[in-house]
Design goal:
By secondary structure, the chain is of the alpha+beta class. The chain is 34% helix and 22% strand. It has ten helices and twelve strands. It has helices spanning 11-33, 40-47, 49-65, 69-86, 117-126, 139-148, 150-153, 219-226, 251-257, 264-267, and strands spanning 100-109, 131-135, 156-160, 168-172, 176-178, 191-195, 201-207, 237-243, 261-263, 289-294, 299-305, 314-322. It is elongated and about 70 Å long. The N and C termini lie far apart (82 Å).
């Protein structure tokens, strides 16, 4: 007796649902894999690539369960490609041997000066931070930090504070010289040369490009990121620290890394640590805040720190500046 072939579960309605879900996954997935900057909506979904990958696995599993084999054969390989790009971020690289001076850099977005200055200073003290890169630094926030005692631990400063979210600054344990390392950009992106006690200099930029999700679209965001200085192989060690408004899945940030920087979190297996949004009941979802170091610098560790009053977690990294 010949058995009838098994019918697919759910009929046309299930097929339409699975196809719709697959398209909803494939659009942001292929945007990421093809390195397309896209519009503001695609830039936002690219930031969610780890979550998009997890959603794709669920869609692929649903397609298998409902015997929609063509959908599964398209969705699951794309999931594997995305997973292959994400997995190395959770695995620490072998730390190369290197002699030099350890340097601890912290970056914090102050949410237009609303961050708790006392917590910021406490974290600087407890984590023995050498350089603090500040974004959305307002004149009122500068006063709050002074009242909280920042000057006592990081007495050297290059400040470009402004009302609202466009100000920035750098505070340091070591002497600073103002520098001009960044091209024209929407927000202030302060830069300075840090004079280390071993005689070496380190160039630091407090990074804060325009977000890509503004109503005018991501064009200015791309220009701001392109204005950041590439790694200078023949010059001093260069560090970019701050709120990049970009994850390691965004093509402009990957292009910047390709000039010779390393993401400190990625180097130590913490590259998937989310930093935004850090307010309310929703946990942070995306990693917008980074410490990019010259790839000649071995990275020791990286961590993210909650700062009340800010919608970003601060990030702290220690790396070695070679002699």
């Amino acid at each position: 007796m010949i058995e009838a072939p098994a019918r697919r579960v759910g009929g046309r309605t299930a097929t339409a649902l699975v196809v719709l879900l697959a398209v909803g996954f494939l659009v942001p997935a292929l945007t990421r894999l093809l390195g397309v900057d896209g519009n503001r909506d695609l830039a936002a979904t690219t930031a969610l690539t780890p979550l998009v990958t997890a959603a794709g696995v669920l869609v692929g599993a649903l397609a298998l369960l409902l015997r929609r084999w063509p959908v599964a054969l398209v969705v699951l390989p794309v999931c594997l490609l995305l997973a292959a790009s994400l997995t190395p971020r959770a695995i620490a690289d072998d730390r190369p041997a290197g002699a030099g001076l350890p340097l601890r850099v912290m970056a914090s977005n102050f949410l237009v000066g609303k961050a708790d200055a006392e917590v910021v200073v406490r974290e600087v003290i407890e984590r023995d931070v050498d350089v603090l890169a500040m974004q959305e630094l307002s004149p009122a926030m500068v006063r709050d930090l002074e009242d909280a005692g920042l000057d006592a631990v990081l007495p050297h400063r290059v400040l470009e504070d402004e009302p609202g979210g466009s100000g920035s600054g750098i505070a340091s344990r070591y002497p600073l010289t103002p520098a001009h390392l960044v091209g024209p950009s929407s927000f202030r992106q302060a830069s300075a040369v840090v004079e280390l006690p071993n005689g070496n200099d380190v160039e630091v930029v407090s990074v804060h490009p325009m977000p890509p999700v503004e109503p005018q679209g991501p064009a200015q965001w791309r220009r701001d990121l392109a204005a950041l200085p590439p790694r200078n192989a023949d010059g001093p060690i260069r560090v970019l620290a701050g709120d990049f408004n970009a994850t390691l899945d965004h093509a402009p940030l990957r292009r910047l890394l390709g000039t010779g920087y390393a993401d400190a979190a990625d180097r130590v297996g913490a590259g998937l640590t989310p930093t935004w949004p850090n307010e309310g009941v929703v946990p942070p979802l995306v990693a917008l805040d980074h410490v990019l170091v010259d790839d000649r610098c071995p990275v020791d560790w990286f961590t993210a720190v909650d700062v009340p009053g800010s919608d970003h977690r601060a990030v702290v990294a220690q790396f070695v500046v070679p002699d």
